[in-house]
Amino acid sequence: MASSAITELRQLLNSTIRITVADGRIFLGSFIGTDQPMNILLTDTQELRLESPATGDNREDNELCSGRFVGQVLIPWKIVRKIEVQEPTQSQQRTRTQLDYDGYIL
Amino acid sequence: MDIDTYYQLSGGSDFRDVTSVFTLASQAMEPGSMVAIDGFSLHDAMTAIEIGDPRLDTGMQLEAVERPEFDPLNPLLPEEICWIIDRSMAYETEWHASNQLAHTVFTLLYVHCLNDVDPDILPILSMIDLDPSRPLELITLVLRAYTSGLLKSCNLAWNELCKGPLLDAEDWHSDKSEVSLLEGWPVEAAVARLDSGLTWLSTTTKVTPLWQEALKLRLQFRRNILLLLNFTESLPRDLGVFDEILQSTRHCLSIIRAHPCKSITSSSPARAAFDPYIARRLNTFLPVRIIDLPSWEHTCDAYERLLNGWEDIARLSKTYQLSTWNQVGFQQSWFSAPVARPAYIRSCAQTLFFDGMQVVHSQPQGWLVDRLFEETIGVSYTVFAQHWGGSGTAALVELERRVIHTVIPHIRGLWNNPARRRRFLVKSILDWHMIYDTLCGLVESVDTINIDPVAFRTLNQFPKAIVLWRLASIREVILSGFQLELYHPLERPFAYWFVAEVIDIHLNYLDVVLKGMAGVVPHNSSSRKEIHYQHVFLVALQAMSMAMFMSLIRSFLPNTIFNQWEQLRTNLRRRYKWAFNSAYDDYDFEPVVLEPDFTRFLREVQEVQGQEIMSNTELKDHAEKSSRSSSEYFELAQRLLQGLISTNNTGTLEGNWSHDRMRLLLGMSETCQELQSYFSGSTSDGDTSQILVSKLDWTRDFSNNIPKTPWFPSVWLQGGAEA
């Protein structure tokens, strides 16, 4: 049980993960490591701020809303609210096979 | 925000919640263990920015800041537009005062949404004015034009600062946080947009005449600033036009200064136009810093300084005298506070002097060699060069290269920030000696048998010209220590004594050069005029320095210097380490001034202290036999300074620079009187030494009072009011 949880975590390494933190910001980056207290390290990270108009920031049409590059960040567990991983894109199932031309006589 | 927008902005909808994976793994992991990619090191973890740490996380919201909603198309009253413009002007001056763009100009939110207020792409419905007192053109034409002009102005200043030798993060801040300063947009287009705004304001009936005028003035002011920034590069080509624009800008500023925009209500939607926390959302790692906006008077003063700087630049662009560049460079750092010299203006002066190819726009670098000797000793360099086959020959290439490589950084360095300027001067002391050494070697190699004695005497003047420049640098290095507040109270008497010693040698060399000019240089030549001025000025400065040395020594308890000499000597060797530079050993000829003579200093200290304990009769006898008293030194200095003032003698400087020089003379004369009466009053009152010193103020606090002289203290009366 214990090792399977760690194995599952290890499988997430190098994947793109999305972490929502307590103040509403979202960090989108590549997961490169963590320690036992779950200080999560992301690299090539984008910071996104998606407040609703109710919070006083109405910037849906604003270019600032697209976020900013913050590089390598360490996100402590105490401020993490949600962690999501990007599903690998499903490769299209191949149904066609090459025809066997051996039977043809040219 | 709808769910689609949310997913679109945050990476898409193909994400799976794995929070529980992390929770379970944390429980399963051993303390101290890690799960990380191959090749991961602790160093990688150390370089990461910790989110949630207010020192590192610039995007962190420290407290719930209630911000009004910002809508760029929210209609505003003319006075609100005026308020926004005035506030953005204050932020612009703060950027010029070495603050970050992200903390100043970029806090104006219209900077980030110019396209959203473009009347050409707005839907027609948005253009219908619902409130006739708030016409939308005020935003789409007036404020948009102003903001575009502001950004373009910052772009032009930014380009100049990048080009010049001033240092990013030391003299100014270049970080644009990936925000456009309209780099690819021509200046003419920005001017045309401002013109459109001005035309609309002139013809509209939607704005009252009072506010029409106020807004037109501000747009005109921005247009002028933009043109001045643009024309600076091409000076002195368009000097006439430049002067006209400068005068027009001064006129605009005087009216704007006299009619500031009154503050708006706290509920005004215009307040939403500024977000001091904008750095949190920009592409920058800078921590958020809220800049306290200067008062309107301070903002106008800052623009005034910028305009004064442009006036100096315009005059320098047609100044082809090396000594004038040198004197102006020194003077601008003596009087104004560092903040009064915007980095942009200093950078302009530096690139104007040398743009990497030519000197003062059009002169070849070799021109510097000619000017240096012509202006210092009144004799052309060709007179010297002809003995070695003329300028540029193999024997002289090294000399000319050294002169060029010393003069250019020397002059440009005068516009550096005060600390860097001093470091450049320290470096130039050795560089000047290298030239002196080369010149001495060349003169020594001349065959004295086959040369006319008069010609040989003239040749011998050339190394002395270099000595004068080197001694002036040494003097400035010592005196700038007072401006930078470097000296410990015990070091001050030594600094005054040492500078008096250096001036003594300088005066001897000036005498020699003046004698050398006899029969060679005309009496009314500018070289002679400047040397005569320098001579009188330096005698006065030397007398003031000696008076300060004597007065300060007397202000200490007896034997203070001797009791603390071991520590003081160590400090002095460190402070004057340039004088103990072993690099001088590599040159054949001995430098004219180098190491200070500590023994001589101590002897003079003893002599001054000895005078103190002598009886009046003894003192009189002693004074007759040897040196003057401090009071007499102050009197002598004041007499000489008054002589220069009464004859309006400011050497070869003219115009505003002549006024600056006169201001220096007047300040020094007043200081002489003040210090003389203070020291003589204190002595007769039986004032104790410690109180005496504590009333002298060497600090350079320009915010309270502009110091009368750059190097001598002010006297403070009881209660803190300055005498």
Structure description:
The complex is a heterodimer of chains A (106) and B (723). Chain A is mainly beta and 106 residues long. Chain A has one domain: SH3 type barrels, CATH 2.30.30. Chain A starts with a helix and ends in a 20-residue tail after the last strand. Helices cover 9% and strands 40% of the residues of chain A. In chain A, a hairpin with a 3-residue loop joins strand 1 (16-21) and strand 2. Chain A is built from 1 helix and 5 strands, in the order H-E-E-E-E-E. Chain B has 723 residues and is mostly helical. Chain B folds into 3 domains: 3-46, no CATH class; 78-311, no CATH class; 319-715, no CATH class. Chain B is 58% helix and 2% strand. Chain B contains 25 helices and 5 strands. In chain B, helix 18 packs antiparallel against helix 23. Chain B is globular. Chain B starts with a helix and ends in an 8-residue tail after the last strand. At the A-B interface, helix 1, strand 1, strand 2, strand 3 and strand 4 of A face helix 1, strand 1, helix 2, strand 2 and strand 3 of B. Strand 5 (80-86) of chain A pairs antiparallel with strand 1 (15-17) of chain B.
Briefly characterize the structure.
Chain B: It is found in: Cytoplasm. The complex is a heterodimer of chains A (106) and B (723). Chain A contains one helix and five strands, in the order αβββββ.
CATH T-level topology of chain A: SH3 type barrels
Strand element count of chain A: 5
Mean pLDDT of chain B: 86
- The count of strands of chain B amounts to 5
Briefly note the structural class of the backbone of chain B: mainly alpha
Organism (chain A): Lentinula boryana
InterPro entries (chain A): LSM_dom_sf, LSMD1_Sm, Sm_dom_euk/arc, snRNP_SmB/NAA38-like
Pfam families (chain A): LSM
Protein name (chain A): Sm domain-containing protein
Question: What are its keywords?
Answer:
heterodimer, A: 106 residues, mainly beta, SH3 type barrels, five-stranded antiparallel beta sheet, 9% helix, 40% strand, globular, B: 723 residues, mainly alpha, 3 domains, two-stranded antiparallel sheet, 25 helices, 5 strands, 58% helix, disordered C terminus
